[in-house]
Hints:
By secondary structure, the protein is α/β, with parallel strands linked by helices. It contains 17 helices and 17 strands. Helices cover 45% and strands 18% of the residues. The longest helix is centred in the C-terminal third of the chain and has 24 residues, at 460-483. It is globular. The two termini are 28 Å apart. 6-O-phosphono-alpha-D-glucopyranose (G6P) binds next to strand 1.
Amino acid sequence: QFTDRGNNQKSYFMKILIIANRLPVKIERTDDSFIVKRSEGGLATGLGSLEIDAEMHWVGWPGIHVENEDEKREITEKLAALNYHPVFLTGEEIETYYEGYSNSTIWPLCHYFFSYVQYKAEYWEAYRRVNGLFCEEALNFIDDNDIVWIHDYQLMLLPKKIRDNRPNVMIGYFHHIPFPSYELFRVLPEREEVLKGLLGADLIGFHTHDYMRHFISAVYRVLDLNCNLDEICLQDRIVHVDAFPMGINYEQYHQATSLPEVKKISKRLIEELGDQTIILSVDRLDYSKGILHRLEGFANFLENHPEYHKKVSLAMIVVPSRDAVERYADLKTQIDQSIGKINGIYSTLGWTPVYYFYQSFPFNELVALYDIADIALVTPLRDGMNLVAKEYLATKNRKPGVLILSEMAGAANELTDAIIINPNDTQEIESALLQALTMPGKEQRLRLRNMQKRISTQTVRKWANDFIAELLHINRQNNEIFQK
Ligand code: G6P
């Protein structure tokens, strides 16, 4: 049972359909079958804890490339048991819709990498077509009065497509990455259709007020619609826009250091590393993450501060991602070279300046690293939110630690007690490292306490519930207006 913000008496019984590019699963091929494993990312956790009495369904790409109809049927049946409904993509669609329009056009545009943006007619055609495939699959499960919640930049045309077919459902859309300023967005040839696609929603959410403002400004200038700070007036309805900063499952991270397995890993790491100070960085492989600038900042630091040689190491985790996209593959080579150069110059027989891991880590190992790390260096050039910064802070309960955070991450709006830096300024990265290394324990604890207070209340659970509550509230208002 769920009560919305405005009416404590009313309860709702309905379906919620979550539509995202990826289903929250990992599918592995065995000799003659498939194994489906749930992958509990932030989104799945938040949506799993909705305070609403509704049946949950997911529609999304299962992340595996299969063309054989029997195999598709087998996967579909296995997923149906979880209320997950797959949209299968062909090899060509993966190339043009996913690697193409989503990750070579929209992604660089929204992250201010203007010169990386690729315009290809076949990318746009595939994006339209695949948004249509998601719509077809979703329509099998949507009845009037259900809630449809669409996620992220891969599916910006979907709100309108669903609205055209089911005018009475409640439609929410959340944009997980930055929305760029109008001056950048306007360069997109398909700007009009993309915005109209989004306006099929009743509620459009962003992580920050800045992204919200950029979006409304783009709608006003491109579509010439009547807008105010958080509403867009269409002929027959109003689209609401709001900021919902996404959080994490705070308790899961905060309690992790008491898990026996995590304690064991932390103990082993501490024994192996001795009294070395560890700076930790964790990202997906992506040019928006500022990995090369970070390495340059660390190299400057080593050059100018020999007193820290053999005492400080950077543990850099880079999680493989989108490696079929050229820019990502090039970046991987550059990172390898940069780390090779630093280690080549400064390593001694007993000391490695950069420990480099090109792999993803299981939860227990990741939190053990958060636990032992003295400093987290989170320096994206652009980032919608950045949850690594929040995970690091939440895990810190055995000993304190310092967060160095880019002002270009959405999280910087909330985590104002971090050492905030401009990630383009490698000298600033160097001086932030010095400040962190010399920060008294008392100050570390004070800053940490302030930030933990914030992230322990603004959790992913709250994020998801706030969004749905606002969507229900808007729907009730609309119904009242309609009845009058
Ligand atoms: C970002 C995007 C997500 C995406 C994730 C992983 O966080 O906002 O929509 O799922 O990256 O990227 P991938 O391309 O592997 O799905």
